[in-house]
Structure formats: C-alpha cells, structure tokens
Write a structure and sequence with these properties.
Number of strands: 16
Oligomer: single chain
Structural class: alpha/beta
Radius of gyration: 27 Å
Shape: globular
Largest sheet: 7 strands, mixed
Number of helices: 25
C-alpha cells in the first residue's frame, strides 16, 4: 500500500506517570462512563456520525436537482431516529435507508467488511443470468484470447463475426491500450462485431474513451458532466464535455452490437454511453445499473467510509440516466433458467441480428453538436511541442476570447497539475494553475498545488504567498484539506529539510550504524525546528530500496517507520510487504494484521493477508 499519510509524533510518558494517570481516569470513569476513552466514545457517537454523513452529502452530493430530492425534509424524518443509545447496526440501517432515497449506487457505506450502495440494484440483481464460461465453452469457435486476468477476451462466434468481452476496465491505461490494440488487430477481417459488457462492474473513465475510440468513426460528444463545488445544491463548476474519437492503429466501424445487462455499471455504463452515439452500434440486452457520477471516500468519525457521488452526469442529449440506467435499443434478456439450460438468448439474438438483419446506420447527428476542445489538452500539447511559455500564452488568449470552441474546467486542471507535479514539470504546472486561480478563485486546493509547484522551482517565497492567499478559501472536499496539509508539510521541509532524506543519505554512505546515529541526532531536534519527520519520506525510501532488491536495508527502513509512526496502518502495511518479499511469512502476517487493526478499510492489506494465510 503506497499511499502516503502524515501523523504527528506524541511524546512518550514515563511509565510511572502513565500508571498514575490511567488510575486517575479509572476512578473518574465510575462517575463519567466512557471518560477513559473520551475520544473513542465521541468518535463512535451515533448522533455525531449521522450528522457527519448528512452534512457531507448536503455539502458535496451532485444530483439533488436532477433527482428533485428535498434533503432537509429527509433530515427531519431520519434525524429523530438516532439517539445516543442507537447501536452500530441500527445506525447502519438508518443511514442506508436515508441514502436509498437518492437512488445512487455510487453513494455508499463501507465498514471494512461490506460496502452497500443506495442504488436500485442494491443486491437485487444477480449474475445468474449470464455465464462467461457458457460463452467460452459453447459460443466461441476455436481458440480465443484472454488478457489482463480474463478482463478482456477476444474470439469468433462464426466466420467474420468477432466477439470482444470486457469484464472490467480497472487495469492500468497502458495495459488496457496494449491489450485492446492487439485484440483489434485480430478483428481486422471481421465483417461484424459483438462487444459484451455484461456483468462488468466498471473501472476508470479514461479507459472508456480509449476502448470506445477503437470503434469510433469520428470525434463525437457523448457525455456532459458538472462537478458540485460550493455550499448550495446548485453550485457547480462549468460543464465538462467528454468525447470519443478514433484511436489506435485500427478502428472497427462495421455493424456492431453492444450487449448490456443490469449489472453493467459505472465505467461500463460510461462505455455504453460512448458506444451508443456511434451510428453503426446497436445496444442489445437489458437496462444498465444506473451509476454514473464520480465518487470520493469520506472517512466518518467511527472509522466507516462514506462514498460520495459529487458530479451530475448527462448524456449528449441532456438526459441523466443515474438511478435509472441506460435502456437498450433492443431489449432481450436471459433468465437464470436459460443459463442453467445452456442457452444465452442475448448472444444468440445479437449474432442473428448482425448476420440476417443487416442493420442500417442510426442517426447520431446530435453527438456532433457540442464537439468542443479541451483547453487543458491543448495546453499539454503545446507545452510539449513549444514549451510552457507558448502554452501559457495560448491559454490566456483563448480564455479571453471565449469563442465557445474550447472549454476549461477545474476537474481537468487538477488532474493535469498533479500529473505535471509527478513528472517535475513545475513551470507547466504553475502556468496552468495560475489560469485556474484567475477563473475559479474559490477553488481551495489550487493554492496548495501551486505552492508545491513553486517549491519544485525553488521559489519558497511564492509558495508561502500562495498558501497565505489560500487560507481565506474554504475547502469543499475533505481531500482538499489533505492536499493543503501536504503542501504545508512540503513547505516546512523546503525550509527545514527532511529527516527521511537525511536518514537515507546516511544509510547510503555509512550503512545501518551511520543511519542509526543520524536518526538519534534527528530525533533530538524533532520537537524543535529540526528537519521534518514525514512518514511518506521514510516509506518512499523503503520502497526505493525494495525496488533495488536491497531487502535488508528496506526492512530496516520500514521497521524504523513503524517505530516512528506506530499508529499508521500504511507503515505496517509497507513493512508487511517487505517481510513477505524476504520470505518471513509469519512476521509479514503479523504486520498486515497490525495494519488492518489500525485501518480496517485497508483492502490491499486484507488481500495480502488472505494470500499469506492460505
């Protein structure tokens, strides 16, 4: 688990004083129940957690308007149900009942063991109406190709009838690109195609555009979305336009059937939305699940996770299918009895429709109306070809012109700025973020990202000025606060130095003894204005050594990280990974268990622990 987090160091208290202190608390606890663990008791307070969920959704949910939901009225219904005596299970049920009114599968609760959404599916639809094994054993002729763990399957239903199954779109974009291009090459001689996204739970939005682009005839608009940002339910950033266009060395533009079912969800629905604007594509099957909005995780006080859908999504004609699902052009469904009897009616119909029906091209002229160009994409292209200065000049010119040909939205700015920072393209990041600050001055994390870019350029004064300017802006998302804290931490390290980097230098130059000595020196200044202790720096050093196959040194660093940040589930997860790589299975298991104890939502740790305990 390589995400980086920061924890503040707490001083050790002398054992004798600790015993006396705890004894005093125990005495007080007879008078004030729960006083010993006051913070834990407060964090688990049912009323506090209900309020946290309601307020977070009120502040960030993106589809109150399109769904005509009176959120205040729902508060008056459900808030009285929660008291200090409400149990965890009762709170769970009350919250889900409230969320269910929004009919949004991307609005969900998770507690580390289960995740339940508020969409219309909510466990009602099962996958017993589809069998991939039946497709492979009965319908595919001859050899077929499987890639990415079976997420992509290509083969032939008959001579000239190609079949592409997409089980999910969760792999890396480079892997998906290579896989789809290799498979499209197999279909160079296909007359017609069946593309199947049944039982597909989703993936990433960019993967949608990559794969759908292999079937595109030209650039077409398929979705418009807006991000909720502001205290009012109708506070949104400008519209973001999503397009598909021909991509890769080969595109198939012959008659195509796209198969969908009620478990086709999230990115699979984005893919359906993209494919259905192509004149040569007919959607066959059942209505999709109806989960479109992007989501982010919000940590609740009691440790549960609330997944918040924060966008409003519409198709190219302005229709919002969230909570409803995209209907097929031609409805054909399987039953569990069909599958049990060894028959896939949907697939059989798709083949007959293509071979005998000779479907005509559909009129998709509306997908050509709002075909716009992203100014962020143009900025990236020009920065690469002619440099940051030319890109900034173009960006400023087109924003001023307001021709309507281009669009400029914070979503894309933030994603690209993070990418620039990761590649150390600091000048490019600053140019883009300055424009965003001018057009959207109330976007809190712009200032934090800009500060980090200035730090990369060595301009600490401008970084401090940016952070000071951003102090007056109220963050709307919880993760913005994390970004702001990261920027503050980066600024402190720029001024005071990094303990992790100095520790790593000592380790490289003098080995473990020198590193031990250096660490003691650094710890002496930890509570003053000495170099900054950042868990992420120590974690990054450990992974760098692990990648170099210097396992002993990596273990040494990861062990030190758990000692420095004993309350970090991430630190224990990283140590577990290194111990597993070193062949120290039992110790790795213990480390992963500790990680999960500290962070029950650590999915990576849970999966690794399961593998180790087999």
């Amino acid at each position: 688990m390589r995400s980086l987090s920061y924890h503040f160091w707490r001083k050790r208290i002398h054992m004798k004083k600790t015993v006396i202190f705890i004894a005093a608390l125990l005495t007080l606890s007879w008078i004030v129940p729960g006083f010993i663990f006051g913070r834990e008791a407060a964090a688990n307070d049912p009323v506090l957690n209900f309020e946290h969920v309601w307020k977070t959704i009120d502040r960030n949910y993106g589809q109150f308007q399109v769904k005509h939901v009176d959120w205040d009225a729902l508060y008056r219904v459900y808030r009285p149900m929660v008291t200090a005596a409400t149990t965890d299970q009762e709170l769970w049920d009350i919250l889900l009942a409230m969320l269910d009114h929004l009919n949004d599968a991307h609005l969900a609760l998770a507690d580390g063991k289960r995740r339940i959404g508020g969409g219309r599916n909510n466990g009602l639809f099962t996958n017993d109406e589809f069998s991939l094994e039946l497709v492979k054993s009965k319908y595919l002729q001859g050899k077929f190709t499987e890639a990415l763990g079976g997420s992509f399957i290509s083969g032939w239903l008959a001579a000239g009838v190609g079949y592409l199954y997409i089980g999910d779109l969760k792999d890396g974009l480079d892997q998906i690109t290579k896989t789809i291009d290799a498979m499209m090459a197999e279909f160079a001689k296909a007359r017609v195609m069946v593309v199947d996204v049944r039982n597909n739970p989703g993936g990433t939005g960019r993967a949608v555009e990559i794969v759908a682009g292999r079937f595109a005839d030209c650039r077409r608009h398929f979705e418009t979305n807006r991000t909720r940002y502001g205290p009012k339910h109708d506070d949104f950033w400008p519209e973001n336009f999503r397009h598909i266009e021909p991509g890769g060395p080969l595109q198939f533009t012959g008659p195509t059937v796209l198969l969908t079912d009620r478990i086709s969800a999230s990115a699979a629905e984005g893919f359906t939305m993209a494919m259905r604007v192509l004149p040569h594509v007919t959607v066959v099957g059942d209505t999709t699940e109806g989960a479109f909005s992007s989501q982010f995780p919000e940590k609740m006080p009691n440790g549960w996770t609330l997944w918040v859908a924060y966008k409003e999504s519409r198709d190219h004609e302005g229709v919002c299918w969230d909570g409803v699902g995209i209907p097929p052009d031609l409805r054909v469904i399987n039953t569990a009895a069909d599958i049990a009897a060894g028959r896939d009616r949907m697939l059989e119909f798709a083949r007959m429709y293509l071979e005998k029906g000779a479907p005509a091209l559909q009129d998709e002229a509306k997908s050509l109306v709002d075909v716009k160009i992203s100014l962020v994409d143009e900025y990236v292209r020009l920065a690469k070809d002619k440099g940051a200065e030319a890109a900034v000049a173009m960006l400023n010119r087109e924003r001023t012109a307001g021709s309507g040909l281009y669009y400029f939205v914070p979503d894309e700015v933030m994603q690209q700025a993070v990418s620039f920072l990761a590649r150390r393209q600091y000048a490019e990041a600053v140019g883009l973020l300055r424009a965003c600050r001018e057009d959207f001055p109330n976007l809190a994390h712009t200032y934090a990202l800009m500060a980090q870019a200035y730090i990369g350029l060595g301009d600490v004064a401008s970084a401090e000025a940016s952070m000071k300017e951003g102090e007056t802006i109220e963050p709307m998302f919880s993760w913005e606060r994390s970004q702001i804290e990261q920027a503050r931490l980066a600024l402190r390290k720029a001024k005071l130095g990094s303990a992790g980097e100095l520790f790593g230098k000592a380790l490289a130059e003098g080995g473990v003894p020198a590193a031990e000595k250096k660490l003691q020196e650094l710890l002496a200044g930890r509570e003053s204005n000495g170099p900054v202790f950042d868990e992420g720096d120590f974690n990054a050093l450990g992974y760098r050594l692990l990648q170099e196959n210097n396992i002993d040194a990596a273990l040494f660093v990861f062990e030190k990280n758990t000692q420095l940040f004993p309350g970090s589930g991430n630190a224990w997860d990283s140590l577990g990974e290194a111990l597993a790589k070193a062949g120290r299975k039992e110790q790795a298991i213990a480390s992963y268990r500790k990680s999960l104890e500290l962070d029950p939502n650590n999915r990576n740790g849970r999966e690794m622990l399961k593998k180790l305990e087999q």
